[in-house]
Amino acid sequence: MDDGSDTNAKHRRGKIMCWSFLLCGAISLLFLSTGCRYTAAPADLLQKPAISPEKQAIVQAIEKNLPVYSKLTLPLREEHMEAIRLIDVDGDDAKEAIVSYYNEYSSPELMVFKYTNSLWKPWVLVQQPLARMIDWLKIEDLDKDGHMEILIGWIGAFDSPNVLEIYSFDSAPVRNETGKLALKPVESMPYSYGDTGDINEDGQLELAIISELGTNQELALPEFYLTLYHWKNGGMQELYTEKLYDGVNGYDRLLIGKISERHRGIILEASTGAHATYTAMYVWERGKLRLVYPNFDLEYEGFSGTPTMSKDINSDGILELQWAKEAPGYPNVSYADSKWLNEWVQWDGKNDFVKVREEFTDYRYGMQLQIPKQWMGRYTLHSSDEQYAFVAIDYWNEETKVTAKMATLYAVPQKLWESVENAWKQEMKPYRQLLTDSGNVFAVSFVNEAPTGWPEAERQAFSEMVGVEAEFASSLTIRND
């Protein structure tokens, strides 16, 4: 075999190896996206995903045109969990394919394909040679002119700083050093975290960027800033800058939207320790941001001993804050054994917050329990040593210190459910089967009566709480995120 044939064979082998790794990487991404839960689906329930003819044609074009030894990748923050995105970026009513990948030098890139003469062909590249990963990717028409802008948060390699760059399909591509068409960034700015949203209700998306200064040992602690921009005349113009609280490790989440019936604003979340978090809420009014949470006058300090993630919990279009608190009555329990309750609160548009929901979530099983109103203020949770039990629920009176076992929740492997159920029946154990999910049967066992000798008021309260058993299953949901 001559040298040319040998080189071609190596390149073919390289591509075969690359795409084998690509499939393995896709499977790994699937597992990463589901998180660590004990409810993974059994292998016999998994099926090979179907690929549409359109996607098959794109995959063939990618395999042919991406560099040798390249592999598809996802941004660290990804909404769609797809390395191939179909979207009309130039307003011609035909979708382009935007592919994110690592090139042969392990640098992240985007390649945009156009569908021309019944074939997918490479069109333009988006590159940042000093980057080692893509943190964030957003494709939006910021000024509603029919041409998309690409916002990319690049993570710098070695000593290169993180940077947010904006590319516009309203600008003409240029030839790079290898002669390929590439988009040049229209804007480049320091970046730690960012997102888009309509903060001022003008019908267009604003860009919110968190940046930090002093991370190269220039200062004892970095300083954090939040800057709002809007896109105008083909570039970003600054709207407002706010100095942020510095006592955090870093800001790692940002939400823009309605924060009350009448207000729009921003929620920021940051890590302050191994598990602790800090949350801040700002309202947009009179062309600037105003801090409404924390509010130290009302003893709302903004700190939590466990991670929180605010969101619109009740689908009313308004963002709620997640307040986490340890289940009461067990002050000496280790962090690993602590049970945390989540209170979801909504700003009233003035000075206070109103609770809209209370719940308990066990992330091992994805089980979420919305606390019934009959339990409010008179229950607590704790761990249980009983086999298959993942949480015990007690009646609890903070004033009188009266407490008693009320219910226990179980997650029993489905293949063992028949034998466990038979054993419970022999024991005359009261139980109610709730639902089956991802290989587990969930059940609850309620105590029928309050302990003898209790005062009538306590017995009445206990009876009201166990009275939810019949409709208890409606309080449970499985989180598959």
Description:
With 481 residues, the protein is mainly beta. It contains 4 helices and 30 strands. The strands form 7 sheets. Strands 1, 2, 3, 4 and 5 form a 5-stranded antiparallel beta sheet that branches. The longest helix is centred in the N-terminal third of the chain and has 32 residues, at 3-34.
Describe the structure concisely for a colleague.
The chain is mostly beta strands and 481 residues long. The chain has four helices and 30 strands. 14% of the residues lie in helices and 41% in strands.
Strand share of the residues? 35-45%
* Cα gyration radius (Å): 27 Å
Which oligomerization state do the chains in this entry correspond to?
single chain
| Shape label | globular
Number of strands: 30
Q: Report how far the terminal alpha carbons are from each other.
A: 53 Å
Binned, the helix content reads 10-25%
The number of helical elements comes to 4
Unreliable stretches covering 5 or more consecutive residues: 1-48
**Backbone structural class:** mainly beta
**Largest sheet entry:** 5 strands, antiparallel
Indicate the mean pLDDT. 87
Which SSEs are present, and which pair or pack?
Blueprint: H1 3-34, H2 53-65, E1 71-72, E2 84-87, E3 96-102, E4 108-116, E5 119-127, E6 131-140, E7 149-156, E8 163-168, E9 174-175, E10 181-182, E11 187-190, E12 193-197, E13 206-213, E14 223-232, E15 235-243, E16 250-258, E17 264-271, E18 277-285, E19 288-293, E20 303-304, E21 321-326, E22 340-347, E23 353-362, E24 367-370, E25 379-382, E26 389-396, E27 403-413, H3 417-426, E28 432-437, E29 440-446, H4 456-466, E30 476-478
Antiparallel strand pairs: 1-3, 2-3, 3-4, 4-5, 6-7, 7-8, 8-11, 9-10, 12-13, 13-14, 14-15, 16-17, 17-18, 18-19, 18-20, 21-22, 22-23, 23-24, 24-30, 25-26, 26-27, 27-29, 28-29
